Amino acid sequence: MNQENFDRNFGFILHDVARLLRVTFDRRIKELELTRSQWWVLTHLFRHDGITQSELAEWLEIERPTLGRLLDRLEANGWVERRTDSQDRRAKRVFLTNEVSPAMRSMREIAAGVRSDALHGLDPDEQEAFVDTLLTIKANLSKQLNGPTSAAPPDNKNNEQAMTKDSRP
To answer: Which CB contacts under 8 angstroms, 24+ apart, belong to 32-40?
Structure first.
């Protein structure tokens, strides 16, 4: 039986890179006094402002009560608000408030620095090719998981245009 070279296994490498990105971002964002869970919620809301609380829990892969407690803390800070869905009174939609703008700006700046450091040594064409490769892998796996017609949450075009890179590390 051939021994697999785990040092060249892209799954392990990708997992390690993602972990290192998160840890690096966590250390740099410490000044904002946000937990990883909180910045992850804010980032998803920045990309998909107004998503339902249930959809957000599904995208974050956390239980709804756990998300509810996170949102309670973010709401207490004045950074998010929950509103009843106009089509389904049982559903709550989650929105960022204006008060979170300075923190989001800082998060995006920190994330840009982490990405820049991570991509150091790659020229712009190599960076674009790398991202294209990751997008192809993502699409391949999404098709396997969800089928070719999977629906993504609606993008908030205003937020997408407000930043050139999202606030993930």
So the answer is: 32/103, 32/106, 32/107, 34/103, 34/107, 37/62, 37/70, 38/70, 38/73, 38/74, 39/107, 39/167
CB-based contact 82:71 (threshold 8 Å): yes
Which domains are assigned to the chain?
12-162 (1.10.10.10)
Half-sphere CA count of 163, side-chain side, radius 13 A: 18
**Nearest CA-CA partner of 43 in 26, 27, 31:** 26
Q: Is the pTM of this model over 0.90?
A: no
Task: Report the DSSP pairing between strands 92-96 and 80-84.
Answer: antiparallel
The C-alpha angle 121, 141, 115, rounded to 5 degrees, equals: 25
Rounded to whole angstroms, the Cα distance separating 74 from 68 reads 10
Taking only the tens place, the pLDDT of each residue in 20-77 is 999 999 999 998 888 889 999 999 999 999 999 999 999 999 999 999 999 999 999 9
Specify the length of the chain in residues: 169
